[in-house]
């Protein structure tokens, strides 16, 4: 399936942040594998352990994203999974709102944003996250700051309805890429590795071409 992104030619990332989701850690699912791949290629990366992932607090996660992602530039790539996508988008929206208040709109950029099983709406399967999700997030305007956005979803995610990921993708100005049978991209779904994510990062030495295959 064709990948639709805000730019067609990704640049080599100078740093990568990998943001895990609910009830996860940097060692879970495909995150450790991706860390190992980035380390072997010499690309600087950070995979923060977000606080209390089984009972996440929006403010605490926001602080963690501020420390990890900070103010990105065209050499920054962020890979986020599930609830980590919402946390990442909230951080980026805060940057946009701060710039508007200071009259400096357009001064930050993000080279690549890769969202896996992302959403901004409440999830029927996970009502315990309702307080964290709240009314969701208005992502209007974020696409203007991001050089390349790739959204990945499966066709059988039991936790995040595919329609919600599609809705997020449309709001970011792209079309979601579908990985058949990917579930929620957990280790229990067979995703202890995820070459497709490395591929769509683009420009990472030794990365596979992610244009056609995002399977784990």
UniProtKB/TrEMBL annotation:
PANTHER family: SERINE HYDROLASE RBBP9. One of its GO terms (molecular function) is hydrolase activity. Keywords: Hydrolase. This is Hydrolase YdeN. Its EC number is 3.-.-.-. The keyword Hydrolase applies. Pfam families: Ser_hydrolase. Gene3D superfamilies: alpha/beta hydrolase.
């Amino acid at each position: 399936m064709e990948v639709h992104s805000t730019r067609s030619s990704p640049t080599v990332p100078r740093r990568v942040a990998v943001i895990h989701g609910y009830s996860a850690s940097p060692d879970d699912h495909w995150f450790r594998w991706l860390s190992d791949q980035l380390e072997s290629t010499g690309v600087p990366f950070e995979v923060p352990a977000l606080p209390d992932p089984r009972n996440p607090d929006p403010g605490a996660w926001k602080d963690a994203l501020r420390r990890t992602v900070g103010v990105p530039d065209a050499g920054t790539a962020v890979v986020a999974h599930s609830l980590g996508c919402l946390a990442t988008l909230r951080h980026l929206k805060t940057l946009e709102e701060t710039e508007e208040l200071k009259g400096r709109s357009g001064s930050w950029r993000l080279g690549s944003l890769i969202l896996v099983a992302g959403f901004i709406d409440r999830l029927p399967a996970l009502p315990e996250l309702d307080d964290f999700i709240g009314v969701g997030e208005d992502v209007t305007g974020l696409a203007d700051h991001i050089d390349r956005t790739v959204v990945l979803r499966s066709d059988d995610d039991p936790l995040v309805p595919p329609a919600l990921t599609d809705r997020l993708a449309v709001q970011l100005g792209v079309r979601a890429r579908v990985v058949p049978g990917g579930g929620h991209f957990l280790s229990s779904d067979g995703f202890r590795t995820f070459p497709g994510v490395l591929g769509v990062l683009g420009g990472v030495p030794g990365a596979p071409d992610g244009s056609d295959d995002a399977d784990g």
